[in-house]
Amino acid sequence: MPAPDALLDLHPEVATAGAEGRPVVALESTLVSHGMPWPQNLETARALEDEVRARGAVPATCAVLDGRLCAGLAPAQLEALARGGPALPKASRRDLPLLLARGASGATTVAATMMIAARAGIRVFATGGIGGVHRGAPASFDVSADLLELARTPVAVVCAGPKAILDLGLTLEVLETHGVPVIGVGTDTLPAFWTRDSGFPVDARLDEPADIARAMQAQWRLGGGGLLVTQPIAAEHALPRAQVESAIDQALADARAQGVGGKALTPFLLARIATLTGGDSLRGNIALVRANARLAAAIACAWAALPHEDTAC
To answer: Beta-strand (E) ranges in the chain?
Structure first.
């Protein structure tokens, strides 16, 4: 575990697990406040923590509360985030110093959660899908901070691939440029969030948590940043690619017509796609993030079992 951090509050369960070298899995809070409606958001947040615990690891949902970075939340804090919903600021890396300076609260994105996890000594993080290069980025320059955080922060991010609303090819190009290995679990191709196969190859297929843990260790011995660990949504929850693309096209057109952009774009698109798919995309999102929590717990257990004498932990 790292030295005590004046900016960081660790939940007692997380602090004890870290001090004892037991596995811990970070979870984000933007999914709770911005990614799903009430009450599915609270139900899902609780389910994710239960999935992690059931597989032998300790969950650490991350957020900013009253100007403090938090790794691990009490039940009342988790519920407050869920009830706050989109009214709570969406916090990426650039927002953290402003929230801390104001003594304010915020729900952390993938990038901000990675940053908090690394400060807390947590090496594995489970989410639904990462941000990336948005469609039309050559004109808009809209590229998620998640990609640069993966480039510099030594945390393994377990997900179902980049969100399908993105330009997946350009997202992979940016990850390759910044030295982020993209690993497939049970797949040779990159999953595309609600669909199982984007058509783009991953860098390597590693189906066993122990193999992934060894890849993590090698990456960090080399001084590298994060790793992206992707597994496809289960077949019974996957949506047809044509249905997803049709819904994305309509949602993007609606966003343009309403002038939605910046931080508001992804939550708008996810909510609009949920409506256009009759709730199928939301049900798929819940299923895939629960599966990712299970996989992340297995990887965290494998990571904890490795010797770490020569790895910066």
So the answer is: 8-10, 24-27, 58-65, 68-71, 90-91, 106-108, 124-126, 156-159, 182-184, 204-205, 227-230
What does the pLDDT look like over 285-300, one tens digit per residue?
999 999 999 999 999 9
Encoding tokens for residue 192?
């595309």
Q: 3-state DSSP call for residue 73?
A: coil
Please compute Rg for the chain using Cα positions. 18
Task: Indicate if 208 belongs to the active site.
Answer: no
CB 197: neighbour CB atoms within 10 A? 15
Looking at every residue in the chain, the average pLDDT score rounds to 93
What is the model's pLDDT at position 313?
A: 45
Catalytic (active site) residue 163: yes
Tell me how far apart the terminal alpha carbons of the chain are, to the nearest angstrom: 6
What burial class does residue 83 get, using C-beta atoms within 10 Å of its C-beta: 0-12 exposed, 13-18 middle, 19+ buried? middle
Q: Residue 21: left if φ>0, alpha if ψ -120 to 50, beta else—which one? A: left
**Candidate list 49, 90, 149, 163, residue with the active-site label:** 163
Do you know the residue count of the chain?
A: 313
Q: In the prediction, which pLDDT does 56 show?
A: 97
Regions in the chain scoring below 70 on pLDDT? 1-4, 309-313
Which of 13, 28, 173, 236 is catalytic? The answer is 28
Q: State the CB neighbour count (10 A cutoff) for residue 102.
A: 12
Q: How far apart are CA 162 and CA 166, in angstroms?
A: 7
Neighbours of 154 (CB within 10 A): 20
